[in-house]
Write the structure tokens for this entry.
Amino acid sequence: MERHLVGDRGVKTVLPHEKVIIYHSTSDNDVILVVNGEQFHCHRQVLISQSSYFMAMFSHNFLEKDKDIIEIKEVDPVAMDTVLSKIYSDDLKITEENALTLLQTASMLQFTDVEKQCIEFVERTLSADTCLRVLQITDSLSLSSLFRKALCFALWEFSAVKESDDFLELPIDYLESYLSSDLLRASDEVEVFEAGLSWVQKSEPETEGSRLELLPRALSTVRLSSLSVGDLKTFLFYPTISSHPLASSILKYVIHSKENKDKSSSQTTANDGPDICAGQSCEASAEKNVSFDEKIIEISKKILGYPGRTPPQVPCVVGHVADSKSSSCHDINPKSSDPNPRRIKAFRKECSHSELKPYILYLSEELDDTGTKKTSLVPLLPLSNISFGPYEPSGYKVASVGKDLFILGGQNYIGYGSCIMSMWRFKTLGRLGEGNWCQEGMLLSPRRHHSVCTVGNSIYLIGGFGKHRVLLDSMDKYHIPTGEWCTCKPIPEALYSAAACVFDGNIYVIGSNVYCYHTLSDSWTTISELKLPKNIGFSSAMVYEDWIYLTGIYTTHLLRFSPKHAVQQRSLGDGEELWVPERVGYFLNKALNTCIVGSKIYSFGLPVDWQSSESEDSTDNSAEKFLAVEMYDIEKNIFELVWTGGPNERKLGNGLEIKDFMTQHCAGCFSMIKF
């Protein structure tokens, strides 16, 4: 006869019919553990050897030290049976149904081996249906690493998670924290509003009406400032909202405030006259025109004060890290004055991949205890999956897509046709740099020194070199959810390492002309009216509002143009109306690797004179000596040197130090979401 007990997920689990379970059945059992009425005959020494909990219990002056029968509370007996079976027989059966109760039992009783295996299983099987339950359990057990991974998964997969039963069962504190996060990946704030409303409307017969009282707290998680007046007015038609005096009043105040602000902006633009809210805030104007309770005004202003949902990001670059304890790299440094890239390549070959490793580095800008901003370059992730053979491949590209990283293309042993066709993906799960590498698939065609752009769930590989050093005008598209490849219409010009970006859903590629690829129609147009400077080869393109910003490998210039505006139009002698990019300013160093984070452009650069700053007889490598990170603040129109890589700043600990940010081409410079 089987005995049924309530276990994980609320599912009935089964305990063997014997009420008294004797492990390692011998006469020397010296302790009985009682769990919810079930008896487990065990050995003190076995328990001590496997559990810190029992080691402390039997080794110190606890009441249970000399007891023959010990009651264990708040533990599931079925899970206890499974754990004890593991420590006696090394047989641990973890399933999706019992994983969390096993984890709770092993963690509470400090069976570390079982706990570790449970954590690994739960991490592998995280899903939209389980992540919120994992989140709460690991929070209660203080399992911080698994907690972060569950939270990361829940935030990123919000659209699926909000449909799960566990979402509707969240306690209000967890709901507020979850829906309020800047990292929540929602299609828009309407989706967040509807999710919160679904939670409030979840029927609870035993506590009827209690969730309705929590509606204002659920509403406060929505970034109302990002919603249109039309969306806000639609919310008032929801019966749950209209029947709730406080929630409906909050929305009405927000609507009046936004309408006054919009009216002020339109009148100022139309009449070029004074702001109708001059001398007072638009909220104050709203208060004047319509009567609102002070409590309503206070709550509404607080909600309106929340900015748009923007996930925190950090600038990243692919560079090289070496073991400073090894002398071989220092002994064969190329002459810093030698402009021949073959000398650099020879240096790379002599330094084996065990000493000189490609790394993703990120710029950390944090405030210390005194409030002073501390800037440092931090190693994020070694690119172990591109170190095939004794030397680093050439021409590979690292790209950030959402929270994940992709390594695309490249070639081993240039001249021998050893192209890298495998595509690798780092799936972030937890903090920045936490996750796992996996092989995503195979490239459609061999490429190196290509450009990469992402539109929605698709990655575009643009130009580059193919087999036998053939310069390519082709473009391949990879759809991430399905893993399918397709070939797009060829680029009007064969290009390699070209600047490329996404603007208004279309791809802009900069070669001798600016080319626009229309993603919906699979067609190209050439913006022949825009004349690019002939002495600059552009390698990076970044978008901010209506502008595309450009930088190049061998220049310090920062330029920009807008596909929507004819900037600095000038009439040439032949009467043709043309326009040229606007010169924004100059970096101090060559802008080899640039990316944009918010309204700031970061340049991980090399000094202008890095090839000729030393005499030919010098053994110093100035590229290593003067690494620098600069930043251009678009809103403030200010260039700033934010980090200088001298000998001390480049040391990372554990005998490692930063060597360079790549010296011949950009292997990857991008922003990453900081979970």
Summary: Residues 313-673 form a domain with the Neuraminidase fold (CATH 2.120.10.80). The radius of gyration is 31 Å.
